[in-house]
């Protein structure tokens, strides 16, 4: 369970916002992630019209891809710039509205209604605000949250999942003593203990 020097590493919300402002977003994939395409059947499990959650979504192109397949997509991201870039880059009209339950939060929703992106801290969300999801695509969230917040993050994710949810999780494997993160190294044993 050794995560080396990363154990106490903290990345602030301001640092994430600055990365977006400086276009220091090497984690963003223009073509979508090949693992989602490879394991799409696992996520969908033969079901149609799912509600799929993208934690710490950035401007992930997979959101439009899944929405175009007929699924309802919900994402959360602290950077409003990222969310606006998503809609602009896909030429999707959207409307903005406040989220009354969360001070300062906004929801940006495609006018077609099938993509809803929340601009706030993920920890401000709850199932009473966003309901529950049939699937989760966690490509860069668990590896981005501070190591000290992993239990809090996973506990929240579990409350957002329907009973028959599918959760696709992508992590990275490397020597945590040679890279300070993010992305953070999450050992497989810790993933098993976090998700049970």
UniProtKB/TrEMBL annotation:
InterPro entries listed in its UniProt record: SAM-dependent_MTases_sf, Thiopurine_S-MeTrfase, TPMT
Keyword Glycoprotein appears in the UniProt entry: no
Molecular-function annotations in GO: thiopurine S-methyltransferase activity
Membrane-spanning parts: none
GO BP, one annotated term: methylation
Gene3D superfamilies (alphabetical): Vaccinia Virus protein VP39
Pfam families referenced in this protein's UniProt entry, alphabetically: TPMT
Cellular compartments annotated: Cytoplasm
Catalysed transformations (reactions): S-adenosyl-L-methionine + a thiopurine = S-adenosyl-L-homocysteine + a thiopurine S-methylether
Key words, A-Z: Cytoplasm, Methyltransferase, S-adenosyl-L-methionine, Transferase
EC number: 2.1.1.67
PANTHER family: THIOPURINE S-METHYLTRANSFERASE
Record-given protein name: thiopurine S-methyltransferase
Taxonomic path: Eukaryota, Metazoa, Chordata, Craniata, Vertebrata
Name of the gene: Tpmt
């Amino acid at each position: 369970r050794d995560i080396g020097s990363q154990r106490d590493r903290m990345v602030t919300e301001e640092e994430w916002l600055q990365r977006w402002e400086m276009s220091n977003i090497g984690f963003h994939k223009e073509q979508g992630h090949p693992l989602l395409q490879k394991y799409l059947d696992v996520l969908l499990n033969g079901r149609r019209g799912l509600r799929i959650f993208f934690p710490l979504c950035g401007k992930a192109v997979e959101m439009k891809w899944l929405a175009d397949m007929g699924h309802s997509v919900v994402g959360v991201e602290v950077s409003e710039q990222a969310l606006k870039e998503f809609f602009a880059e896909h030429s999707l009209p959207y409307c903005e509205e406040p989220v009354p339950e969360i001070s300062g939060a906004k929801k940006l929703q495609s006018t077609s209604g099938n993509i809803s992106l929340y601009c706030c801290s993920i920890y401000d969300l709850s199932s009473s605000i966003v309901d529950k999801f049939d699937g989760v695509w966690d490509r860069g969230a668990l590896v981005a949250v501070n190591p000290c917040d992993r239990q809090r993050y996973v506990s929240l994710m579990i409350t957002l999942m329907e009973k028959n949810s599918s959760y696709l999780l992508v992590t990275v494997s490397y020597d945590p003593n040679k890279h300070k993160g993010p992305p953070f190294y999450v050992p497989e044993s810790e993933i098993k203990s976090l998700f049970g």
